[in-house]
Amino acid sequence: MEASISQLEVNPITLSTLSKPVSPWVTMVATVVKSLQIARRYLPNLVGSMLNLAIRMAFFLLLANVISVQGSNQNIQMAGKNLFIFFQGALLLFVFNSPTLWGPINAVSNDLYNGTLEYLYSNPCSRYAYYVGTVVAEVIIHLVVFLPLYIFLIFYSQANLADMFLILLACFMVLIALTAMGIMIALLALLWRQVGSVAQVLSILFEMLAGAYLPITAFPKVIQYFAYVLPYTWGYDLIRYYSFGGARAEMGWVTILPAWQEWAILIFYAVVFTMVSRYLLKKAELLAKRTGLHVI
Question: Where are the domains of the chain?
Answer without folding.
Answer: 49-295
